[in-house]
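hey can u run this one w/ S-adenosyl-L-homocysteine bound, need the structure tokens asap thx
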Amino acid sequence: MTSWYIVEMILPAALEDPACAVLEELGSVGWESRAGEPGFSSVLAYWADPAPPGLGGSIRRRLETLAEGLAVGRPKVGPVSPLPAEDWEANWRRHFRIERPIPGLVIHPSWIPYEAGPGETVIEIDPKMAFGVGSHPTTRLSLRLLRACTGADRVLDVGTGTGILAIAAARWGAVRVVGVEIDRAAVVNAVENVARNEVRGVLRIVHGGAGAVKGPFDRAVANLLTTELRSALPDIVKVLRPGGRLVVSGFLVSEEAAVREALQRHGLAAERSAREGEWGALLTRLLTRESMVG
Ligand code: SAH
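ok here u go:
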């Protein structure tokens, strides 16, 4: 049976986003973050057994360099501790509950049944190692902006994770939805969640990036880290029809100006923005050639 290693960290909040990218590079299979003391986040990161040699030292060194570069306080990194598989499962399940990311939408895991109330859209998501149960501000922001431009149209979800945004789009009436995902474990999880929600007829999960699918799509959504968004944009605009909409989230409010600029360079004009805490989201429209000239 696979067992796991966990490392607990207390990070200055500004360090959390770049730190997670470093944890991923160091082979972490997942992490959870919880708000800590004001201005700090407590992050619990997981590694599959066997953990890379010298893991504790590597984490410390990399995070300290990062903190110096960003001129923020020093991170506190706990020991690399083994966690037996059963504890992982129980521990992980304890963290999930029923989420109401936006009014009228309920997300629940399979082990907490939920009866739909009048007018409610209910989605069952078992997240496993994938991201997206509706508890993260960027998922909520993406859902909010996606809901605002919903229709009987064709939707692409870039970085589908658990499949949450793609499933929601299908439930809200999209006629064709494709969720693309580069992480194989997340693809498997998304496929399971699609089957759970009886949206199979309209929704397909594809392993790869936006370049792996054929357009045109009327809408796309990309809840990705800023660096990932930048590299995905050229492929996204290729499959989005002129006049189509793109919802982006996953960036920090402090990155919004740079994100807007990158979007503009690809012909995407912001129509609406939304924020939650330090996270931002934008609803944009792909300008047609004529409107770009005019
Ligand atoms: N859409 C979900 C999950 C977002 S997490 C939600 O909003 O909650 C971002 C996901 O994007 C991760 O699962 C990551 O593996 C995936 N990803 C990152 N870059 C990608 C790319 N270029 N193409 C497709 N998937 C990508």
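The mean pLDDT is 91. anyway lmk if its weird
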